[in-house]
């Protein structure tokens, strides 16, 4: 591989490989994973929903296999919050959604800092004076270390506050899984955040999906209309395709203490099971940090979090 991977064509995908396993990365499309699959003579077996040529050409992060959520994740009500006595207004940052959504990293190109056959390090340096269109007023640097081994794909995300004042943060990743009539999701969770139609959180409580997720059969994504945060999860979830005799297990470390399931009835091909550090609109919720997640980095302080995706076949 080239000594300087940034000399490649700006819209080129990066390929990581370990045996038959492959990961395609799109640094120029929000530092996203474009595909994760096994390459066989009979064809490709995809573990995440792959980006299509059309979504790659359009540079649409929402069409990727997974993309990073940083320096905040989920929604922020009306794109505004008060922090450390100051009003932070994100309404002009180019986000076309009604509420600020998922930070700005997924809408910016990332740099390739290192690349080997089975590992890549992507970084993003945000300086408010240079990124005025993205309105997050705190300088920071984010990184993703993406690695393949014989068992798993591991993504380690890190974030460092480069500003001279404390910075609130949230972090996560947004994987899309293949969704079929036979797909089932398994996880153990304590409660689900119910939402307004927006959707923004109203309260945490019981929901039939909780029992379905814990059942031996698992939860069908078709059973409920979900775009919800789940709390008290064991930081592991499995997506199973019984008719295809295969599954993939997501395992996350702290502070990925919350899980989002996105299985909208209006878009029956979409299924996301996301490791995240906080519930939606955490920064505007008057709750103790353990209930809502999120965090604050002091000037110069760093944090990191990892998750793995481990495929299995019968």
Automatic annotation (TrEMBL):
<dbReference type="GO" id="GO:0030246">
    <property type="term" value="F:carbohydrate binding"/>
</dbReference>
<dbReference type="InterPro" id="IPR008183">
    <property type="entry name" value="Aldose_1/G6P_1-epimerase"/>
</dbReference>
<protein>
    <submittedName>
        <fullName>Aldose 1-epimerase</fullName>
    </submittedName>
</protein>
<dbReference type="GO" id="GO:0016853">
    <property type="term" value="F:isomerase activity"/>
</dbReference>
<dbReference type="Pfam" id="PF01263">
    <property type="entry name" value="Aldose_epim"/>
</dbReference>
<dbReference type="GO" id="GO:0005975">
    <property type="term" value="P:carbohydrate metabolic process"/>
</dbReference>
<dbReference type="InterPro" id="IPR011013">
    <property type="entry name" value="Gal_mutarotase_sf_dom"/>
</dbReference>
<dbReference type="InterPro" id="IPR014718">
    <property type="entry name" value="GH-type_carb-bd"/>
</dbReference>
<feature type="region of interest" description="Disordered">
    <location>
        <begin position="199"/>
        <end position="218"/>
    </location>
</feature>
């Amino acid at each position: 591989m080239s000594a300087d991977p940034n000399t490649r064509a700006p819209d080129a995908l990066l390929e990581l490989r370990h045996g038959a396993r492959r990961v395609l990365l799109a640094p120029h499309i929000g530092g996203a994973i474009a595909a994760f699959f096994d390459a066989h003579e009979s064809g490709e077996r995809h573990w995440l929903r792959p980006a299509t040529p059309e979504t790659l050409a359009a540079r649409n992060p929402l069409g990727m296999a997974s993309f990073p959520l940083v320096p905040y994740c989920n929604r922020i009500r009306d794109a505004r919050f008060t922090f450390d006595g100051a009003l932070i207004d994100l309404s002009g940052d180019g986000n076309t959604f009604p509420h600020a959504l998922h930070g700005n990293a997924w809408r910016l190109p990332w740099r390739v800092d290192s690349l080997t056959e089975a590992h890549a390090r992507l970084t993003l340096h945000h300086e408010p004076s240079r990124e005025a269109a993205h309105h997050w007023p705190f300088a920071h640097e984010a990184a993703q270390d993406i690695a393949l081994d014989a068992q798993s794909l591991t993504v380690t995300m890190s974030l460092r506050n480069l500003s001279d004042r404390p910075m609130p943060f949230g972090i996560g990743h947004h994987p899309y899984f293949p969704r079929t009539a036979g797909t089932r999701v398994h996880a153990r969770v304590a409660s689900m955040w119910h939402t307004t139609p927006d959707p923004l959180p109203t309260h945490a409580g019981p929901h039939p999906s909780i029992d379905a997720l814990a059942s031996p059969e698992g939860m069908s994504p078709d059973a409920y209309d979900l775009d919800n945060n789940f709390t008290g999860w064991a930081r592991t979830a499995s997506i199973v395709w019984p008719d295809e005799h295969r599954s993939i297990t997501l395992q996350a470390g702290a502070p990925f203490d919350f899980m989002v399931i996105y299985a909208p009835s209006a878009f029956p091909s979409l299924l996301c099971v996301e490791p995240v550090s906080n519930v939606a609109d955490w920064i505007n919720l008057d709750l103790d940090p353990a209930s809502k997640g999120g965090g604050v980095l002091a000037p110069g302080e760093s944090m990191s979090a990892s998750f793995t995706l481990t495929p299995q076949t019968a």
